[in-house]
Design goal:
This protein is of the alpha/beta class and 181 residues long. 30% of the residues lie in helices and 23% in strands. The protein has a single domain, classed as P-loop containing nucleotide triphosphate hydrolases (Rossmann fold, 3-Layer(aba) Sandwich), CATH 3.40.50.300. It has a 6-stranded mixed beta sheet, with helices on both faces. The longest helix is centred in the C-terminal third of the chain and has 18 residues, at 163-180. The radius of gyration is 15 Å and the shape is globular. The chain binds guanosine-5'-diphosphate and magnesium ion. Magnesium ion binds at residues 27-28, 44-45, 64.
C-alpha cells in the first residue's frame, strides 16, 4: 500500500526526503546552502524544518530534523512516506563515527523506511585532514547494506561542492524506480 502511494507521488514528481544524521553534521547548513540562504547563521535545530526545492522538474520536500541524542527518539515520526533518506556525516568527527554507524543501522531496520533509498553525504569535505570516502564507507559498513539502494558522495555545505550532484542522484533514483515498478 505504501509503495503504491509512493509511486503515485513519484509520478506527480513530488518527493519526500528525510535528512538525518548526528547533531552538528551540517544538515541545516546543507539545506540552507541548497536554498541559497546565508549559511553563517545556522543554530542547532530543535524540532524540524521543511523546505521545498524545485529540481529537474521535481518538487523535493526536504525534512531537516534535529539530531541531538534527546531528539533521536522522535525521528520515527518522520519515517512515513519517505522516498530518500539523506544521511549526513561529519567527516571531521572521527570520535563519533561508531555512534553514527549505530544510529544509521538502527534506521535501516525500520519497516517504514524499507522502500527508501539512501544517500550518504560525507559533509565537511572542505576541511583538511577529514576522513576520506573509503574511511566513511568502511566506518559505516555501507558495503554490508542489503536492504536499501545506497550511494555516498563527499560534499561541503560551506563551498557547496557536490550538493547539486546529490540532488541529481536523488531525482535520478526516483526516475529509475518509476521505470522499474
Ligand atoms: N567546514 C565546514 N563546516 C560546516 C560544514 N557544514 C556545516 N558546518 C558547520 O558545522 C556546524 C553544524 O552545522 P549544522 O548545519 O547546524 O548541523 P546540524 O546539527 O546537522 O543541522 C556549524 O558550525 C556549521 O557552520 C561544511 O561543509 N564545512
Ligand atoms: Mg540542524
Amino acid at each position: 500500500m505504501l509503495s503504491i502511494l509512493r509511486k503515485a507521488r513519484l509520478k506527480d514528481k513530488e518527493m519526500r526526503i528525510l535528512m538525518l544524521g548526528l547533531d552538528n553534521a551540517g544538515k541545516t547548513t546543507i539545506v540552507k546552502r541548497i536554498m541559497n540562504e546565508d549559511v553563517n547563521s545556522v543554530s542547532p535545530t530543535l524540532g524540524f524544518i521543511i523546505k521545498t526545492i524545485d529540481y529537474d522538474g521535481y518538487k523535493l520536500n526536504i525534512w531537516d530534523v534535529g539530531g541531538q541524542k534527546t531528539l533521536r527518539t522522535y525521528w520515527k515520526n518522520y519515517f512515513e512516506k519517505t522516498d530518500t533518506l539523506i544521511w549526513v556525516v561529519d567527516a571531521t568527527d572521527r570520535e563519533r563515527l561508531d555512534d553514527c554507524r549505530q544510529e544509521l543501522k538502527g534506521l535501516l531496520v525500520q519497516e517504514r523506511l524499507m522502500g527508501a533509498s539512501l544517500l550518504v553525504f560525507k559533509n565537511k569535505s572542505d576541511v583538511r585532514g577529514c576522513m576520506n570516502k573509503d574511511e566513511i564507507r568502511e566506518g559505516l559498513q555501507l558495503d554490508s547494506i542489503r536492504t536499501h539502494k545506497w550511494h555516498i558522495l563527499p560534499c561541503s555545505a560551506m563551498t557547496g561542492a557536490n550538493l547539486q550532484e546529490g540532488l541529481q542522484w536523488v531525482v535520478q533514483d526516483a526516475k529509475d524506480r518509476l521505470f522499474l515498478y
